[in-house]
Amino acid sequence: MQRLVKTAIFTANRREAEQSCLALLQGCDAVSKLSQIHAHVLKSGLQNNPLVLTKFAATASDLKAIDYASSFLFSGDADTHLYDSFLFNTVIRAYAQTSHEKHKALCFYNVMVQGSVLPNKFTYPFVLKACAGIGDLNLGKSVHGSVVKFGFDADVHVCNTMVHMYCCCGGGIEFARKVFDEMPKLDSVSWSAMIGGYVRVGWSTDSVELFREMQMAGVKPDEITMVSVLSACTDLGALELGKWVESYIEKEGIHKSVELCNALIDMFAKCGNVDKALKLFRNMSGRTIVSWTSVIDGLAMHGRGMEAIALFEEMIGTGVAPDDVAFLGLLSACSHSGLVEKGKRYFSSMVEKFQIVPKIEHYGCMVDMFCRAGHVKEASEFIQKMPIEPNPIVMRTLISACHAHGELKLGESITKQLIRSEPMQESNYVLLSNIYAKMNHWDKKTKIREAMDKKGMKKIPGSTMIELDHEIYEFVAGDKSHRQSKEIYEMVEEMGRKMKKAGYVPTTSEVLLDINEEDKEDALNRHSEKLAIAFALLNTPPGTPIRIVKNLRVCDDCHSATKFISKVYNREIVVRDRNRFHHFKDGMCSCRDFW
Ligand code: ZN
Ligand code: ZN
Question: How far apart are the C-alpha atoms of 380 and 146, rounded to whole Å?
Answer without folding.
Answer: 56
